[in-house]
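Hi all, posting the design record for the shared folder.

TITLE: backbone redesign
STEP: 1 of 1
STRUCTURE INPUT:
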């Protein structure tokens, strides 16, 4: 995960809206990344211009405890067992810091490599290997020319010898379920590339490169899930979760239990069936003044979204109370939509029979009503 824009940590403020937890919460917060800590029920955020990790209580939107980093925090990853958090620290010297979430203490910090010409590398993205809390993959970048500088594997802060080559790809990383493959990809930009990387005791070895089929940050049941569902082992596309509004690259979440895929857009969070690719509904997200690619699922149909702009950075927190079935994603709830099988935001119904023209096989009004007896 990556950017947002705006204020310094000293300007953080909770903007109260209403006492109900179901009311969308708006937090004035300029985030570089956000991550869900299920064990404590908190969202952790790295803050642009700040030097701490900030905890957010999602039900109330209140700010919780913070963890000092000694520099500006960047990408965050949390181990599946909930014990360990990793965060890239961008300054004064780029490192990755490891944090014990039980004690909220930084237990170690380590450099992620150096470029012979441009100096120390920093972390673009971090992923924790499934089944461990001490092995991570790091997508790296040099700070001067902003070029991706290979993917490396670290054990307790020690880099394994083999890394992938420097280049413009591999800005984001995700492990497969077994932890023996990492997929490196760009964030959906034109001409982006998907890398398949073997992970073993030697480190990271590039196996193949191909045009990015629209993958994203989730690996579920053998499939990479983003704007599309792609099976890398068979090089096979399964389907896609298309949007008709602006959808930022990386703005994808998955709920394997509900078998749902979510995409953050300027029209709210759109919901699909993971397996059939059918539209299911929408979670309304107010306060949008733009949208970045910081998008997080923290509960059942519950999300945190960086939804502000450079002048007013905002983190919006919503939950399932804001969900409404919307099978055709025309941004009208099914209960008030006169055609749920095809998008028809204009709700045209020429013959006034209650069935929208987009669904009506005979949509035109009867030209000879007086002849009807």
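Okay, here is what came back for every position:
SEQUENCE:
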């Amino acid at each position: 995960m990556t950017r947002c824009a705006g204020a310094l940590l000293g300007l953080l403020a909770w903007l109260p809206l209403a006492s109900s937890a179901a009311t969308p919460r708006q937090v004035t917060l300029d985030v570089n990344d956000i991550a869900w800590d299920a064990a404590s029920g908190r969202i952790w955020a790295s803050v642009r211009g700040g030097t701490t990790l900030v905890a957010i209580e999602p039900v109330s939107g209140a700010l919780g405890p913070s963890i000092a980093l000694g520099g500006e925090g960047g990408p965050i990853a949390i181990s599946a067992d909930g014990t360990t958090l990793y965060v890239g620290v961008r300054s004064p010297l780029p490192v990755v810091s490891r944090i014990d979430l039980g004690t909220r203490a930084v237990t170690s910090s380590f450099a992620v490599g150096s470029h012979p010409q441009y100096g120390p590398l920093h972390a673009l993205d971090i992923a924790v290997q499934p089944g461990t809390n001490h092995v991570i993959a790091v997508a790296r970048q040099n700070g001067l020319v902003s070029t991706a500088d290979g993917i490396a594997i670290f054990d307790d802060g020690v880099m394994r010898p083999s890394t992938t080559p420097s280049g413009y790809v591999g800005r984001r990383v995700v492990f497969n379920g077994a932890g023996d493959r990492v997929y490196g990809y760009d964030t959906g930009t034109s001409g982006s590339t998907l890398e398949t990387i073997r992970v073993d005791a030697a480190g990271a070895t590039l196996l193949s490169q191909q045009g990015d089929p629209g993958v994203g940050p989730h690996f579920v049941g053998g499939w990479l899930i983003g704007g599309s569902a792609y099976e890398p082992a068979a090089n096979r596309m399964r389907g896609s979760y298309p949007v008709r509004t602006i959808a930022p690259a990386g703005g994808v979440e998955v709920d394997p239990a509900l078998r749902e895929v979510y995409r953050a857009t300027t029209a709210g969070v759109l919901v699909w069936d993971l397996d059939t690719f059918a539209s299911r509904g929408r979670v309304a997200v107010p306060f949008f003044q733009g949208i970045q690619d910081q998008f997080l699922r923290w509960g059942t149909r519950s999300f945190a979204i960086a939804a502000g702009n450079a002048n007013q950075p905002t983190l919006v927190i919503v939950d399932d109370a804001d969900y409404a079935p919307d099978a055709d994603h025309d941004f009208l709830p099914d209960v008030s939509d006169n055609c749920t099988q095809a998008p028809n935001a204009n709700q045209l119904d020429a013959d006034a029979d209650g069935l929208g023209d987009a669904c009506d096989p005979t949509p035109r009004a009867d030209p000879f009503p007086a002849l009807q007896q």
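COMMENT: The two ends are 65 Å apart (CA to CA).
Let me know if anyone wants the other runs.
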